[in-house]
Amino acid sequence: MPAPAACRVVNLPNSITLTRILSIPLLMWILSSARFSSVHGEKELLASLVFIAAAMTDGIDGYLARKREQITTMGILLDPLADKLLIAAAFVTLAQLNPRLVPAWIAVVVIGREFLVSGLRSIAASEGFTIEASELGKLKMVVQIVAVVAVILDLRWKEWPIHGYYVFPIHWIAYLAIWFMVAVSLVSAVDYFVAFWSKIDRRVVKRRRRAFILSRRRKAIDSRPQADGNATAST
Predict the structure, then answer these.
(1) How far is 130 from 123, CA to CA, in rounded Å?
(2) Kind plus residue range of the DSSP H or E element containing 160
(3) Spatial contact of 57 and 16, defined as CB atoms under 8 Å apart
(4) pLDDT tens-digit profile of 152-174?
(5) Where in the chain are the domains?
């Protein structure tokens, strides 16, 4: 007996994607709420774990969807949307809580880049082709995770002592990760735009060629009866 349509849409991969979306308000609440103490870093550690777990589901849901052959239209729509919302929520919250490391303009650049790429992919889909995730895009995602976690931990620790004698420079890691992330985000955005433009440009050229060929064929067809008629009249 076939499974109901609702079960096919809300399958395991899509459920994981929905979990990622539901973790967004939880992350913002943990960072903004006074219910969690920052004396020993409980708030920062919990927020970091929630963000890392949510980011990891990005690869898990895609892997399961391919392995279980459960790729659905809902999953195709929700998966990139969940990624963009998670990153946007993290940077909007951190721009408020840690403006020294994440000023507002960096949040605008990061969020703008995410939705620019989404817009290009939507236009590409409407034109009948896809823009695959580039290696720069994948690197950008990894750097974003490192940057967000480092900035969250920087709210409590600037340096993290390990075994009582080694100091882990969280602040400098966060600082370098943020600027490296901005650079990779901009370069990958240009890379996506170039890929989009080259494909859309080829589409336009093909359409013009087809229109030119069709117009010549129509002219040839339209001219045949006239030629036959002239030949009949002359005889």
Answers:
(1) 9
(2) strand 160-162
(3) yes
(4) 999 888 887 777 666 778 899 99
(5) 1-81, 92-219
